[in-house]
Design brief:
α12 packs antiparallel against α14. The N and C termini lie far apart (58 Å). The chain has an 8-stranded antiparallel sheet with strand order 11-10-16-7-8-15-12-13. A 6-stranded mixed sheet has the order 2-3-1-4-5-6, with helices on both faces. It has 5 domains: 179 residues, Rossmann fold (3-Layer(aba) Sandwich), CATH 3.40.50.300; 85 residues, Translation factors (Elongation Factor Tu (Ef-tu), domain 3, Beta Barrel); 72 residues, Alpha-Beta Plaits (2-Layer Sandwich), CATH 3.30.70.870; 107 residues, Alpha-Beta Plaits, CATH 3.30.70; 113 residues, 2-Layer Sandwich (Alpha-Beta Plaits), CATH 3.30.70. The longest helix is centred in the last third of the chain and has 21 residues. The protein has 597 residues and is an alpha+beta fold. The radius of gyration is 28 Å and the shape is globular. The chain is built from 14 helices and 31 strands. It is 26% helix and 33% strand.
Amino acid sequence: MQRELIRNFSIIAHVDHGKSTLADRILQFTGSISDRDFREQLLDDMDLERERGITIKASAVTLNYKASDGQIYSLNLIDTPGHVDFTYEVSKSIAACEGALLVVDAAQGVEAQTVANLYLAMEHNLVIIPVINKIDLATAQIEKVKGQITEILGIDEGQIILASAKEGIGTKEILEAVIKRIPPPRGGSENPLQALIFDSSYDTFKGVIIYLRIVNGLLHKHTKIKMMSNNSVYDVQELGVFKPKAEIKDSLEAGEVGYITSNIRDAKEILIGDTITDSQHPASVPLPGYKKLRPMVFAGIYPVNSKDFQSLRTAMEKMRLSDASFIYEPETSPSLGFGFRCGFLGLLHMEIIQERLEREYDLNLVVTTPSVVYKVIKTGGETLEVDNPAKLPSPSEIDSVLEPFVRAYILVPKESMGAILELAEARRGSYVSTEYLGPQKVQITYELPLSEILVDFYDKIKSLSKGYGSLDYELLDYRPSRIVKLDILINGEQFDALSSLVFKDKAYQKGRAVVEKLKELIPRQLFKVAIQAAIGGQIIAREDVRSVGKDVTAKCYGGDITRKRKLWEKQKSGKKRLKQFGKVQIPQEAFFAALKA
């Protein structure tokens, strides 16, 4: 395929604005999929994606399209996620493209993640084609949304394409705009080989499947390739493109997007963002990678059955391969045994990883209370990064604790503004600015501690704005804060899996809420269970789970009272012994309750 006839583009948007549906219509319009093989959300491979109606993982597909000028073009489309937690997937896709379709819901208008993804694309100098989707809805406000887009992009209204992915309206106009506005890829087949790894997956028979974009050079089967990050050399076993099923080819040229396999079995050998070159005639410098994002939330993942530890390790290695933003390292807990400390981009990301591990690898898991990364400056001047409450030094060794802060961009209707301001202030927010994106839409900017927006902040925004609010945030810096370790004690023994690091002024409310929730969820035992919240040696809240009653004197009817007393004393000593040696099983729901308390 001539480079002038290739176009590489992605679809970016806020969650639920119709990206996957638009990708479906493009596949059908170009004849890339037959009606018999078609299903909704075709590029969403996971059952989890289709069930939740969200895209979790970016997907690449090569399409052939005969344009109005009579030429047949090769279009490489990458469908991307829209949720703030999966910005990492979007950054990978953008690095492999020259242009992007910016899809905006005609009823919802511009939202926070729309703006965030737009800025990400503009950083990479991508050509932006704005598309207003769902124009067939009765609630569509086309003129208002046009005004919002022109204000953000500073473009003429005539460049905006009106579409309905559900009805197939505007699909041809979108494809023609892709060909006319997005430039062909740069680079040349005569140059030394440079290919950007933008994704990967694992196949039981083929090993690691590497998704790449050829920027320069030519890649053939059996080429000896070299990873420029670690100088590892491999032999290309198979290469091809997705149409949308894998189609084997003899070579991939500059500008093409495809896949290769090299019989690689170890997930750790592949680094997303790395550059592949020819080991015989290597390129002098690697390609600049996409934006690398650090995990923002950490939690422990443990198998319920300790015998599953090795299975969990294998599952995590494969999960790391298909999701490069997920990191893990082994750790041990006195209460839960052997497990892993894992890093995630957000709470939805954590929830998805847990569900995928349980579904795809048939594991039964326990997830501990999530925490952000704090910086602790010790009295000797040493700085520690603490992502686990167990790693927090004793108060006598701590000089100060620094907490991560984010700049949050909250987009809501004007009438919800007062309630949102109250919410942000209650979460220790610091007001920055208010910007009107139209007569009815407001963007409020706040600086907030990351720990305050992790759990239910987004849900509260949606609730207060009747579903029309949206949130995006970026990490700012670390600031001094009064952070203490909140411990949960079960019958006097510290249950480290429920420990958390909290702001001192909110420690009592958090401790009280957690013990009350645990009282509801921990099943009654044959002995009384004391649940306590403590800071250091000070107990700040307590609840008791009453023991299950058992009438040991039921068989005694009549006779001397001393007989009953003897049985009661025997029961009392038995319960005392049981309390000493008995173990309380904490159900998985208790961990989620402690998280949301």
